[in-house]
Amino acid sequence: MYINKLHKLLIDCNYLVSTDTRKITSNSIFFALKGKNFDGNEYALEALKMGASFVIVDNDFKNDLYKDQIIKVENVLQTLQELSKFNRQQSSAKVIALTGSNGKTSTKELIKTVLENKYDVVCTEGNQNNHIGVPLSLLKIKADTEIAIIEMGANNFGEIDFLTKLTLPDIGYITNFGKAHLEGFKNIDGVIKGKTELYKWILKNKKSILINSDDKTQTKFIDDNSVTFGSKENSHYNFNDISENRVSVKYKNKIISTNLYGNYNFSNVCAAISLGLFFKIDIDTISKKLQNFELKNNRSEFIINDDKKIILDAYNANPSSMKSAIESFDMASGTKIAILGDMYELGDEKEKEHKEIIEYCLLKKIDNCVFIGEIFYQQKIEKPSHHFFRNKNDFFEKFKSISAKNILIKGSRGMKMEEIYERIL
After folding, report:
1. Whole-prediction pTM value?
2. Were both Cys, which of 103, 295, 338, 344 would link to 412 (CB 3.0–4.6 Å)?
3. What is the pLDDT of residue 425?
4. How many CB atoms lie within 10 A of CB 367?
């Protein structure tokens, strides 16, 4: 079936798409994707029985009862991607694409919070930012959508370029360049090369880049279509950091206060404000929206539990985000304990990067540092302030409670560090 005909079915189904029979909605289109350990074709009939109007499959099978609802294609994933690009091309919505090593999802949610006050906005859900998640996000763009915010992730070269060519953004933004996904990118230069595939496409196609003018790597990409923000006076949007415990930003004579913790969120907030101003939203409205914004799902959550202040930053971790979290935590007053879990996807650099984090903590005024995981454990050192455990169970045997007034919990997603908060705090 031609993509334009499939697009008409998408409109008829009110842009409802699913790849998981556990989340089937009535009158949706089910795409029978294949993975290493599953074949969505095996669930196609189940999807129809559960209310899907059509199923897109790439295996041969017949069923007379549903024959008009079964659409055979050569490759389901490729069809999903092509349809998403076609849907984006049919829309007049302004598309904002963002990527980066840290803070993508937080920044995306901040931008959404600002823009949805005035515009009809669609946005990537959660962190659905890969070769499947991006198409699913693009398929949410409807005829009346005014702005789409699309998050793009990558762990190897060429992936951002591919996703950018699906997304066809009007504006692109890279949050930062950090030591993440080093298994694919190898080093920080590789990260920069991979992430800036977004900027290279935008420059080639004469679209706009939102640039943090305090980031020397980003300023190399400034052109006549760029929109800049930062502490430099010649930026389009000039901000001053007046944060204390929470992130606060001064723009002209206006102070924008937030509930966000960590100096690493300063640029995320500034990016959201800049895009709000760019899209003609007044600064008072922006300020009111950001005052009530809160991060969720273990992303730099600031929790007050009796007399304790807890930073639960357990969604993910890499060396750059870990150092930023530790640096901000170091500024807290009162007794402090940092509970840090292993960082994944670092390839050959994993031992070196974990050792650097251990040594970095020695430079800070943190009463106790707890390191959990096999990689950290292999780099253990003998210091009164440093405690090493192979896993969380070993930690739980030693620490029944925590008396420190300030607690930082951070680690890679696979470490599930939120279990520490749930169990002993």
Report:
1. 0.87
2. 344
3. 67
4. 15
**Residue numbers of the chain with a pLDDT score lower than 50:** none
- Residue 160, pLDDT score: 96
- Dist. CA 423–CA 425, nearest whole Å: 6
Q: Which pLDDT value is given to residue 81?
A: 97
3-state SS assignment for residue 173: strand
| pLDDT (0 to 100) of residue 196 | 94
Distance from C-alpha of 252 to C-alpha of 270, rounded to nearest angstrom? 13
Q: Which amino acid is at 25?
A: T
